[in-house]
Description:
single chain; mainly alpha; two-stranded antiparallel ribbon; two-stranded antiparallel sheet; 15 helices
Amino acid sequence: MAIGCLTVDFREQLRRTWTKPAHDEHTNGVMNANENSPLLGHSSAEADRTGFWRNVFLDRRHTPGIDSPNPLVKWPARAFNVTKVTLLSSPINILLVFVPIGIFAGAHEWDPTTVFTLNFFAIIPLAAVLSFATEEISVRLGDTMGGLLNATFGNAVELIVSIVALKAGEIEVVQSSMLGSILSNLLLVLGMCFLLGGIRHMRDDEGAGIEQTFTTATAQTTCSLMTLSSASLVIPAALYAVLDHTSNDQDKDSSILFLSRGTAIILLLLYVLYLYFQLRTHKNLFTPEAPLLLEEEEEEQVSMSAFSAGAVLIAVTVVVAICADYLVGSIDDIVQSHHISKNFIGLILIPIVGNAAEHVTACVVALRNKMDLAMGVAIGSSIQIALLVTPFLVILGWIIGQPMTLHFETFETIAFAFSVLVVTYIVQDGKSNYLEGAMLLGLYMIIALAFWASPSGALDNYLAPAH
């Protein structure tokens, strides 16, 4: 769902991915005759009724009554319009039917597996709605503020789920979900983009094999930041291993907590500097080439007011928190009953929840040969998780008394470091093809198999520092 600090052109392209201008024969409920209009069978009254109901239920930009001078008509019409626009914003929203069912199941303490599954599918469309509401607001704010808003709400679902898990003391789940979100974007999403885009654009008009291209500055800068974030996890793990033989547990835990909290502050400062670099001083380096912007030049329009989008953002955030609470609360029972590692749930399953909407979007734009946008979606989201969300959770744990550190489970750290290394080598030339996409997907499946094959509790016995 997270887009990363995209430019205005990027955000416009994302919106066009799902939003198509209406091309029908009705304008404001009136039938416009043309050479294809039937001579018999449709009276003007029938056309008027058809156009009216089409505007009521299917028109994403207008609902009859929203401009009425009568407040008893205007405000209900506007509330209905916001609801309609939100529901029609993405095909994924068909899964919203799971939201009330999942909340009901959690409130009435159904079987933990059922509660987890229902709320798992409920959060997926809620993530898409959050992304849509964020875009509606950011269109009005311009480049800088729009980018900051995307940075704040781009990974809202992962952040909410992780805060709920952190308050519950599920530090292993929080750490695994953070790494899992990064890996799913770097390997699964980027791999699918390279694979599908490479197959769709495999040959040129003369039959010769071709590669898709993207801005090298974007790849180099983001991969350098990902390498830095990888080092921020390897260093605490290395220090922990050294202190394991020279210090008692209390001193060792204190050292790791001090290192993690200091590193988290540094990473947050670097992320702010990265925002300034991308949105202000060097934003030209992150702008796609002109040919990518020539396909659809229609004027960017918004579907709801900033106030309405903000209300949707707040309401959906509350619902996501409720569903996340039930989802996290069922994890322990699922681990015990199905013998699944918490690391597998956090690393593989939970990231699917928060990233489903952007997974689809990235693949669609890759098929349209807009690889700069696909890179911005996939790697930009990874940067947010690594340099913003994870350090923020360390600081939040410090505030609420939970010993959240950057000392992740050793196997997770190794998998993350190798993944960043592989992605860096693949994208540094600014070109992609379906074979490189298959390699990224293969690495992701190997990591998923490794965590699935690990016995329940084998990786969950990582001992977080004591208070």
